[in-house]
Amino acid sequence: MTTPRLFIVIPCYNEQEVLPITAPMFLEKLNSLARDGKISEDSRVLFVNDGSKDKTWEIISDLAKQDEHYIGISQSRNRGHQNAVLAGLMEAKDKCDITISIDCDGQDDINAMDEMVDAYLDGCQVVYGVRSSRETDTFFKRATAQGFYKFLAMMGAEVVYNHADYRLISSRVLQEFANFKEVNLFLRGMIPLVGFKSTSVSYSRAERLAGESHYPLKKMIALAVDGITSLSVKPLRLITGFGVFVAFVSFIGVLWAIITAILGRTVAGWASTTCIVCFVSGVQLICLGIIGEYIGKIYMETKQRPRYIISERTWEQD
Ligand code: UDP
Ligand code: MG
């Protein structure tokens, strides 16, 4: 096998503080992998600017001028982390043999890349980076993130535990993945669906080197809902199951009402009636909401809008 050409794909959104610190780290890693003969010299660090409002794109353009190993593409507007990663992967797929996607904030240990590339050289097509510890995360972030994975699994969305979007994917897998046309993206759940031999590599997650997280609780919940509704219809089944359960309980309630009526013990029960009406209408609204969530997804899918639009590149396209 010839030495593979690696593209490190890095989504960046408003990262002017951290990019000048981490960019040289990525380049250094690329160079050291090339020195060890694991990847070819013409490997690249590919930044994807996700419509940043600060100086991120200027920084990327400057880097590209300084060293040919840095290249960048810019999305026409902010589309979110998942779309930014996808744009980078699709850009890279015909130009390289392997990609590694990683966040630009230095939280994911770049030294795990050696092991990832080794696993690829051993024949794995996908290598998941898995966090071994979360000591540096706040208690809140750790608890919510772990709850996130457990909830996903419960709802039937299979994801690799504690794996975010730090992973190696070969261009072979990306060629197949390009046929997954859905616009609702949840990469960490979709990549396993492509199949091929995979493994995981564990690393410890550090703190952000600078700048602030763009994933507050609100976005994490949105990601969880996206993950569940794009990977599984289990919530719809749960609704049906719950409906059957409520119907059964109501049936018993009706029997009870009839019996007490026959025994002549009926009292005008305003409270119980109100409680039941409130409860059932609440349940119905929740169920409608869940069903609506899926219909919304269908609506977005039928539009078939582009999943990313690249407005600029740091190099001329051939
Ligand atoms: N990011 C992006 N678009 C967005 C939000 C985030 O490309 O709309 C990038 C961001 O620059 C970073 C990565 O996604 O490289 C992960 O974001 P962040 O570090 O804020 O999330 P956290 O690690 O706190 O979950
Ligand atoms: Mg981060």
Describe this structure in a few short sentences:
By secondary structure, this protein is α/β, with parallel strands linked by helices. It is built from ten helices and eight strands.
Considering the chains and any ligands shown, give keywords for the structure.
318 residues, alpha/beta, eight-stranded mixed sheet, 10 helices, binds uridine-5'-diphosphate
Description:
- This protein is α/β, with parallel strands linked by helices and 318 residues long.
- It is 50% helix and 16% strand.
- It has ten helices and eight strands.
- It has helices at 19-35, 56-66, 81-92, 112-121, 139-154, 171-177, 187-194, 217-231, 234-262, 270-303; strands at residues 6-12, 44-49, 70-75, 98-101, 126-133, 163-170, 198-204, 310-313.
- It has an eight-stranded mixed sheet with strand order 7-5-6-4-1-2-3-8, with helices on both faces.
- Strand 2, helix 2 and strand 3 form a beta-alpha-beta unit.
- The longest helix is centred in the last third of the chain and has 34 residues, at 270-303.
- It is elongated.
- The two termini are 27 Å apart.
- 32% of the residues are buried.
- The model has no long low-confidence stretch (mean pLDDT 86).
